[in-house]
Please model this.
Amino acid sequence: MAEPEFTATGVRIARRLRSLTRAGRVRISDGRLELLTSYGSEIDSAPLHTVRASRFWLTPDDRAFADLNGTRYLLTLAAADPAPGEPGPPAARRFIEAVRKAAGQDG
Model:
């Protein structure tokens, strides 16, 4: 198995008003986006070319939306530890950039 292109742990994954997990994982690997529970069970997955990742300008920097297989998920991503002395990009923006880069989309 190839090294994941993006991994985030401790992710709250919700569908509409229902929280599916508070400590899930988001992984981009081998051209697929996978949403997993803290135990590693798959919530949903889809090929990256069918995934739409977005963020509304009114939402906090740690929240992003992902549309997989016709279902919209709200992802609350924990901020990663940046390099010492650097603020680092917001978690949601890093996730969206990773989806676009892995899917071969431009900016």
Residues 47 and 95 are 15 Å apart (CA to CA). The chain is about 10% helix and 45% strand. The longest strand covers residues 18-29. The chain has one domain: 6-103.
